Amino acid sequence: MMPMRFLSDGPSPATVRASFAKERIALTGSDAGLNSTGLVFEAHQVFTFADRDRNGTMDRGELDLVRRILASMDPDLIPAPLTKERADRAMTWEKIDTDGNGTIDRAEWIDYVTREAREHGERPMLKLMKLLGKRVNDMWVPGM
Description:
Blueprint: H1 13-22, H2 37-50, E1 57-58, H3 60-72, H4 84-90, H5 93-96, E2 104-105, H6 106-120, H7 122-138
Antiparallel strand pairs: 1-2
């Protein structure tokens, strides 16, 4: 069983910001060319919660967990113009793993979320990321 990790166990916020800047990962909405700062924050949260093994990438199993959670959500909770089916079709491995290396890194995830926000609107994507973040976090089990 893996010990629980706390935010204080990780690198300092300054170190994280420097790392994200070096890797060109959007930290705010304006970094990603969006109006909403909350969307990028929520997308980072979903990625962090979905990265069960804490290796900094999502593998197919971790993305499948997010997709299963999305599929189990009440359709009335999915913000228009999104639908469960549309969101599920958009959340494919090929659309997210743009470098084709077999894993999804944080930058690819943020790029995917911002592309979808430009297509479907920032507000619906923000609501979806909030819902997914809560659901994925609720399913967190230590050591998984």
